[in-house]
Amino acid sequence: MLVSVIIPACNQAAWLPFALESVLNQSYPRFEVIVVNDGSTDETGQILRGYGKRIRVIAQANAGLSAARNSGLRAAKGELIGFLDSDDLWYPEMLSATVSYLNEKPDIDLVCGGWDFINEKGFQKSSVFKPSRFQASVDNDFLRTNILGCPFPIIAVIVRRKCFDCCGFFDTSLKAMEDWDLWLRLAAHEHSIGFIDTPVARYRRHGSCMTLDLPRMEQAFQQVLAKAFTNKEIADRCVDLEIHSQIFQRIFLAQYCQEAGADAYLGRCIQIAENLYSQAPYNNELDKQYFRLLSALPYTENFLRILSLSNSNLRPDFLWFTSKVSIKRKEYGVAIKRLFALLARYPKWVIRKYLKEARES
Question: For residues 155 and 86, is the Cβ–Cβ distance under 8 A?
Fold first, then answer.
């Protein structure tokens, strides 16, 4: 099957050659590369001319990421579609692994592989994320899983062309999170997704990365959710998750704030999420997810305390968390008192927790 690889490019000349080479060096031979030069004012045009007939170039006035991808889609000839941003990379086996999976599973409409994060210089910042952990929840209900947040980056996904024929292209009114909006529409129309743990994509994090434009991301989160819950197909199936989806988006935004070093913005996000929690329907499983995510962020101790009071299963987690916080603050007396209380109430839990963390370290 022919794969159309669409690369929007806007003033990313420093990284564009690396993105292009990562596609041109794929082990799978049947692909076309479509680069949409979205009004670049740097050396992007000159770089693209150097690739000659190995790529197809569409030049347009700057219209944004969604419009650039849509231009590429309209020109695409492939049965399968892949998207790579001009500052990111693919592993050499990206296309061979994903196309092989889709060939073996004709009932699957899109496939997502593993990804990691790299820094500005291309050095690895994280281990490869293995997305197969999403499979069970997605098989249970792709839409309800997806409404709580975009679970995978578009650069790690290959999509059958028929999905766009069914659900339309990217929403050009969105300045970010347009891929999440697409996944929600695909899920609402019962399109299916599969996951492989093969490393396929490398997501570059740098100072001008879109996810670190916090006001833009906050606005996009709100737009996508507002749009989703005015869609009857989505709203009817996810009515109990509407407030929870807003909480998750604030927590995810807080993660971006942490990376950007925007502490004041982070604290505001956590406070909004905490206030929303009091309005949300009780959900035991989501409480566990909240606790896991919040434990990795600052300014969350009060929110975690609220979670532990509303969900008795989280009380030992909260005592463990506050003990570790006390140790970091060098409040050793307080930490010892909390650990002894934890050991007295939940001895088996403490042993399991200690052994688990020892293995992970």
Answer: no
Can you tell me the distance from the alpha carbon of 71 to that of 63, in angstroms, rounded to the nearest whole number? 10
Q: Tokens 């070093």 label which residue?
A: 261
CB atoms within 10 A of CB 240: 12
For the question of whether the overall pTM of this predicted structure is more than 0.85, the answer is yes
As a whole number of angstroms, the distance between CA 116 and CA 119 comes to 10
Q: What are the φ/ψ torsions at residue 208 (nearest 5 degrees)?
A: -100, 15
Q: Say yes or no to pLDDT of 2 above 90.
A: yes
Q: At the top level of CATH, which class does the domain 3-210 belong to? A: alpha beta
Backbone angles phi, psi at 157, to 5 degrees: -120, 140
Q: Are 211 and 246 in contact (CB under 8 A)?
A: no
* Cβ atoms of 181 and 171 closer than 8 Å: yes
SS (H, E, C) 221-239: HHHHHHHHCCCHHHHHHHH
Q: Where are the domains of the chain?
A: 3-210, 229-301, 311-361
Cβ atoms of 203 and 129 within 8 Å: the answer is no
Side-chain half-sphere of 5: how many Cα atoms within 13 Å? 27
What's the chain look like in SS3?
CCEEEEEEECCCCCCHHHHHHHHHCCCCCCEEEEEEEECCCCCHHHHHHCCHHHCEEEEECCCCHHHHHHHHHHHCCCCEEEECCCCCEECCCHHHHHHHHHHHCCCCCEEEEEEEEECCCCCECCCCECHHHHHHHHHHHHHHHHCCCCCCCHHHEEEEHHHHHHHCCCCCCCCCCHHHHHHHHHHHCCCCEEEEEEEEEEEECCCCCHHHCHHHHHHHHHHHHHHHCCCHHHHHHHHHHHHHHHHHHHHHHHHHHHHHCCHHHHHHHHHHHHHHHCCCCCCHHHHHHHHHHHCCCCCCHHHHHHHHHHCHHHHHHHHHHHHHHHHHCCCHHHHHHHHHHHHHHCHHHHHHHHHHHHHHC
Cα R_g (the chain), whole angstroms: 22
Q: What is the pLDDT of residues 230-265, one digit of tens each?
A: 999 899 999 999 999 999 999 999 999 998 889 999
Residue 207: CB atoms within 10 A of its CB come to: 7
Q: Which two tokens stand for residue 330?
A: 């060098």
